Amino acid sequence: MKWVTDFTYCRTWAGFVYVCFIVDCFAQKIVAWHAATTKTTELVMTPLRMAIWQRDRDGHPAGRGELICHSDAGSQSVTHMTTH
Predict the structure, then answer these.
(1) How far apart are CA 68 and CA 62, in angstroms?
(2) Which residue range forms the structural domain that includes residue 63?
(3) Which of 7, 27, 40, 50 could bridge across to 32 with cysteines, CB 3.0–4.6 Å?
(4) What is the count of structural domains for the chain?
(5) How far is Cα 31 from Cα 52, in angstroms, rounded to an integer?
């Protein structure tokens, strides 16, 4: 099983909103997403926990070494992870 994850942002009248999403490469669908007004660890961890929970609930738990989750680990991720 292979997932790809990324986040983006958009400007709204109230400020920026950040959205993180996880795509299942084989099913070709978004399996989880989360939106927030700040770029905290929870922005990316919440959809990851949701996607894993949903797979388990559907009767397809991810065993050790069965899940590959790829992220581009861009400059926002590096800066964010090193500061928090």
Answers:
(1) 10
(2) 2-83
(3) 50
(4) 1
(5) 9
